[in-house]
Amino acid sequence: MGSSEGYEYPKKQRSTTRMKLKVLLLVILTNLLTIYFFAGAPSSFHHDISHYTNALSLPLVSWPNTTTDLLSELVTTRTQLAATRSQLSDLHQRLQVVAGHLGRPNEGGEVDEDGGRRLLESLPEEVRLAVGPHALPLGFSPRSGSASVYPSVGFACLKYKDDLVQYMKYEVGDECPLDDKFAQRLLLKGCEPLPRRRCRPRSPEGYVGPAPLPESLWQIPPDTSIIWEPYTCKSYECLVNRVKQPGFYDCKDCFNLKGREKNRWLSDNGKLDYSIDWVLKTKPPGSIRIGLDIGGGSGTFAARMRERNITIITTSMNLDGPFNSFIASRGLIPLHMSVSQRLPFFQNTLDIVHSMHVLSNWIPNTMLEFTFYDIYRVLRPGGLLWLDHFFCEGPQMNQTYAPMIDKVGFRKIRWSAGMKMDKNRNEWYLSALLEKPMT
User: Fold this and answer.
1) Per the database record, which ranges form the Methyltransferase type domain (predicted)?
2) 128 shares its domain with 276
3) Residue 35 belongs to what domain range?
4) How far is residue 321 CA from its own chain's centroid?
């Protein structure tokens, strides 16, 4: 009896061990196959899945009769499992690349980075350096929550890849190509901000510095203060006389400081024309100190405010004229940016925002609403938005723009509407002084 029991026990033990190993391997393989087979592979990669899953067949049917053979089979099986995991990992990476091509999110809900990485790798080196990530010298920064930093560049820049490459084509450390008009077209397409460049812009020949304040506010600068090649006019005299020439030009009479510019915002006609002094009287003396003029042409509004010790930054585009250079020559601060860009100011900081003609119905409604909310953001509580001759079609006044302004949350201090008289159409002007509520 004793010898019989001693013989049967190891046999049952080996049988139980084999069964447990079978179950364990089957569970591992089933889970691996389930996870990776249903990983959402695109149809274009089905043949890759078949290739890798076929490689998973393992010798689980015939089992050895000795312990040595069993250990040998286990070693072989473990080696095959390791190879299988490597193959599946490779397949998973390929699927992520495809997902990046298709713009599909990864398991974390974020867009896969491989697509963006490959896009950078396809660009010339200078573009990669300008828009790609740069490792922080001291490693991970708790302040930014990252170990790298991405230079600021507009999202639309990557949409116009060929234009972006052309803009970044120059000799590093040499003179920048004279491509002001091309750069501005990129800005107007939404490639804003443009990437920075490692080249030096050309300086005007025979450059003469600006006149001192306050004379510079109303003085035409010398022609040698700028480079004229990007513009139709080749002198300030030509720009001043452009008002007499036929055809359309942006801000046609802005450079004639002795003409209509000399009298802007000095008088109040009780209708569409508000005077600066009336606007300032709506607030305690000295409480309007800093502000922004959106699309301020040649900077005359900022000049008028400068005479009253108020600092105004003027945004402007160089639409066939050196508007930014002209504003700077007057001793004022220009900002070369379009109306589509987020205002580069912190919230609740500006006392006043002004815009004449630029904020109007030529801007898509949704974009205009974002702009109004952004103005609301940068104005301090009690700050003023001065809409100056906002133009639109007659029905749009009450159907679209008045509700939009109310929705943003501005309080009306003054609201004036009048019909445009320069065209035989149902077009209207709106001038309004609006206030951001104190609470």
Assistant:
1) 292-386
2) no
3) 2-102
4) 26
- Are 220 and 346 in a shared domain? yes
Q: Do 223 and 180 share a domain, yes or no?
A: no
Residues 316 and 279 in one domain: yes
Domain count, the chain: 3
- Whether pLDDT at 111 is above 70: no
Q: Are residues 290 and 400 in the same domain?
A: yes
Give 156's Cβ-side CA count (13 Å radius): 12
Residue 103 pLDDT class (50, 70, 90 cuts): very low
Residue 289 lies in a domain: yes
pLDDT at 109 over 90: no
pLDDT in tens, 357-410: 899 999 999 999 999 999 999 999 999 999 999 999 989 999 999 999 999 999
Residues in a beta bridge with 314: 293, 334
- Phi (first) and psi of residue 313, to 5 degrees: -90, 135
Q: What is the pLDDT of residue 425?
A: 76
Assigned token pair, 255: 């450079």
Task: With respect to residue 279, please indicate whether it lies within any of the assigned structural domains.
Answer: yes
Q: Which residues, 6 or more positions from 189, have their beta carbon under 8 angstroms from its beta carbon?
A: 156, 160, 163
Inside any domain, residue 255:
yes
